[in-house]
From TrEMBL:
One Pfam family from the record: MFS_1
GO-annotated molecular function: monocarboxylic acid transmembrane transporter activity
Protein name, entry field: MOT14 protein
UniProt-listed SUPFAM superfamilies: MFS general substrate transporter
Keywords, sorted A to Z: Membrane, Transmembrane, Transmembrane helix
Membrane topology: Multi-pass membrane protein
Principal location: membrane
Cellular compartment(s): Membrane
Transmembrane portions of the chain: 33-55, 75-95, 102-120, 126-148, 160-180, 192-210, 321-341, 361-379, 386-405, 411-434, 446-466, 478-496
Domain Major facilitator superfamily (MFS) profile as annotated: residue spans: 37-502
Record keyword Membrane present: yes
Protein species of origin: Loxia curvirostra (Red crossbill)
Record carries keyword Membrane: yes
Amino acid sequence: MYASREDIGYDFGDDSKVGSKPIKPNPNIDGGWAWMIVLSSFLVHILIMGSQMALGILNMEWLEEFNQSRGLTAWISSLSMGITLIVGPFIGLFISMCGCRTTAIIGGILNALGWILSAYASNVHYLFLTFGVTAGIGSGMVYLPAVVMVGQYFQNRRALAQGLSTTGTGFGAFLMTALLKYLCTEFGWRNAMFIQGAISLNLCVCGALMRPLSPKELREKYVVRNDSEENRAKALSHSTETIKSNGVLGEEPEKKEEVANEEVLGNVQHIEIGGKSGGGRSMFGLRLFKTVSQLTVTVRKGFALWYSSYFGAASLFTNRVFVAFIIWALFAYSSFVIPFIHLPEIVKQYNLSRQDNVFPLTSIIAILHIFGKVILGIISDLPCISTWNVFLMANFTLVTCILILPLMQTYIGLAVVCALIGFSSGYFSLMPVVTEDLVGTKHLANAYGIIICANGISALFGPPFAGWIYDITQKYDFSFYIAGLLYMVGIIFLLIQPCIQKKQSREKSTEEAQV
């Protein structure tokens, strides 16, 4: 069965040709090089997200070194985590212009530079700039391409592919916690950050593996589509019809833009042919002019796509379920980040350091996080299961665990709750899938950039807020209660908005039938 324009969510050009002449599926879609993309994304999650999940080790070192309040010191980790995600929309613009591969390589260099410069920190504010801002921006420039590329290379097994790639966060949290603890013990935290900066240069290798798909390969990806996946995408969000009824986001401006760009390049080629008789000097000038023109065209096309997605008449923000998704993201991520940053300090307060040294609670979260992502990804790919429902159930489990965590004051009780937190937080692997089903692959980079930007705001203010509450009450209990209640507000938005959308769709259908 061939996918219609409405099912896909955007146009490829001449639909009649696609429908009358079957195109052989690309072997690199759902196979072949696609698994190298998964490997690349997996390593990116280990080096970036895994390292950030292990920052609780460095946070304790910074508290001892600089003797600042917990609230102020927590800003170092929060800035790094938050900026990694907040820069998502701007990285989407960079991807539109330069592509995922170039963006990721530049980001890898910037991230490594941030770690290395942080080794020479003389105060907390220095770390704000080097580790929080510099390393954070570099991380964002690698993280978003790693997620987007997996979405581009997979069609039928997207949830499983995203689950496998994002398990790197769990592996990374487990490995990096042990690595940073060892490096800090043996060499001190400054040398540990210098070594970690050298390791982070491997992000450039990961970026080099992100081979872009050609427009033809992207077209072949959507020629054949399973009925089950069509039904699942339709069931996920009726609000996508609003965007699809208006055509492609910014489709007409893009077509006009392409015509203008072709005219520019055509004129350049005409001048170049006419100038061949003008000698070597004029040819060099023409080639330079052609290069600049091509670069200008690339920048204009990238900016046009980015601008139409955010600010066009049919922008992403006309999708009400997507807006509810953004509101959820503003509250959700801090509930996952706060335990990683403050659990080592909580364990120390409860005099559980001996048991925690044998098997750290953050490592329990990390290990179960791995299984959660893979298992939830496999379940979501089943034809009879809705990805949206799996996503909501995991969210409910996680928010419940956050609310009851302060009640646990024994190692066994904390370990059980941390295990549930780790498994249920595996829903992160479903976020790109849900986002792609809402807006389509063409706008995945910009849409997911908005989502992780909202997550970044949550991560930015969550840990400092928890530290500030502790400085006032000398307890972490209220930090978890408030974070859990805000998280619940976000989940309620996810539940209410689709129901309202379905009701409006039914009322509209009834009115049309009466007319």
